[in-house]
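Lecture 7 notes: from sequence to structure.
We start with the chain below.
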Amino acid sequence: MKKSTCLVYIILTIVTISTVIALNPVHAVNTFPMTLTVTPTSGNTPLTVSFSLNLGGTNYTNIDWSFGDGSTHVANKLTTTHIYQKSGNFTGTVDVISKKGDSQIQVFSVNVGVAPRTAPTTINNQTTAHQILNIIRANTPPIIVTTDLQSYNQGESIIIKGSVRDIENGTAITVRVFNPLKNLIAIGQFIPTSTGSFSDTIKANGPLWTQAGNYTVIAQYGKYQNDTATFRYSGGNGQIIANTVVTNSIYQINGGGQTYSVPYAIKGGTVKSMDIYADKLTLEITIAATSDGSISVDLSRSLMDAKVQSPGANPIELPDDKFIVMINGNPVQFTETKDSTVRSLSISFHASDTKIDIIGTQIVPEFGPIAALVLAIAIISIIAVSAKTGLRFMPKY
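Predicted structure tokens for the same chain:
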């Protein structure tokens, strides 16, 4: 065969192969019509949103809906609805794969706000306890879950805490932990307390804890209520190493003429003292830190609280505000779960830290009504005795 003939044959072969590849792509993007309708895109909790997908008659093999709030995905539906149970700006996606293998993803946003409070009814100009609980419940998501830290290393203990708003007798909380590959690596089930709170500690140890990346915690209560939390794990070698010691205890604080129990869990140190300062609206926690760690503190609302300020309003009726947390005088970030009676704060600290200040908007006074009455009676008695006997407390010149 002549060289010129071979060259023409090679050129024709290349052109033929190129044409076949062009007509039969392995994977193409945006090759079929796709229109997404989201109604409404904003509103107050609980917000029901309708989703509708128009593919222009394109046949599909898979549709995956992700609503951006950590809830379970919905598969293979052109129309669906979802109820957003908590407030926030949520970014979701819908991923469609056609029978030809083409793939498209559309992103949507839903802005969910807190439902406005209903003005409470009063009896003799006083808000009833039932109305106060309803106010707090209206501003509390159905379920909350969080971890004590944002990141962990191999061998550390992970404290998972949360609360359920509406208790159902006999219904258990299910907590599942997934690694970055979406593999289930830990699971637990337990009954929440009478106030709806729950807590569990898992160990970042063993052959399932090797993958580095973002891990997901899903807390499920009943069929429809769930919440998620995420944390970063640095990865491990699959071996079991010494675990971080977590100390669970209760500190007794005297204030307002009574004693308050403050449950806490600390790792990487010990609690030396807890004191309230009514003039500063502050709970001061002194710690002895042996390493970087964290402390979770359960604060009874009757001990202290943080409320949005409104002149002339009853503080109990106001919506919740955020606490301010300072470590050695510097503001720090923290996570929180809460219910109608308790607000639980998880705070991380460093080995050199010694003092943690939690600042709210209301706190029990150091001297309660009974103590103040006793003090007033004592002062009056001293004055009466001194007037009768001529006793002086200061020398007369």
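Points to note: The mean pLDDT is 80. The CA atoms of residues 211 and 219 lie 22 Å apart.
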